[in-house]
Amino acid sequence: MTMDKHILFVCVFFIVNVFQAQSRTFTEEDCPVCVLTIDKFSKSLEGELKPKNIEEKFKNYCLSTKIDKEKRLCYYLGGLEDSATGILNEVSKPLSWSMPALKICERLKKMDAQICDIKFDKEIDWKTVNLKKMKVKDLKKILDNWGEICDGCLEKTDYIKRIEELKPSYVKEEL
């Protein structure tokens, strides 16, 4: 009889955990690139309600973005010419109904989980960062994220010098 109680206890424990996992609310942290990108894009629509027009505008948005994480999201959704899949209508229709970006991304995650695997890089703490200890690849990435290039940069010190020159334009110093 004690074995039956033990099995019953394990089953109840398992069922409670399943319901708790399902009841957890979907947040922006679960899918940050998707939520922020779709939210930013939706603000640029200016009242557009036709899904086909929204899809075209999203494709144009994807071509113009310089942020590599947004480009990857565009690729997964079908917003780029070389996209392997096309679920752009799963974005355009809900946007035409004024559905919030959070809900759209929650639905997209159910279709393709890798959409929410895209995360933004950690923000650089400019007050404590030592550029000399960073890799050249990371220095190039900083410039790329700013949409800048470093013509004639051959050595690490050249990249550091260029970042220091541009830093006042891109980094907001807090008082």
How would you summarize what this structure contains?
It contains 8 helices and no strands. With 175 residues, it is mainly alpha-helical.
Q: Tags for this entry?
A:
single chain, 175 residues, mainly alpha, 8 helices
Written description of the protein model:
- This protein is mostly helical and 175 residues long.
- The protein contains eight helices and no strands.
Biggest sheet: strands, sense, closure? none
Helix/strand order: HHHHHHHH
- Derived from helix and strand composition plus strand pairing, the structural class reads mainly alpha
Percent of residues in beta strands?
under 5%
Helix percentage: 55-70%
What is the tally of beta strands? 0
Helices, by number, come to: 8
Which helices and strands occur, and which strands form pairs?
Layout: H1 2-23, H2 32-43, H3 51-64, H4 68-77, H5 89-96, H6 101-111, H7 136-145, H8 156-170
Helix pairs in contact: 2-6, 3-5, 5-6, 7-8
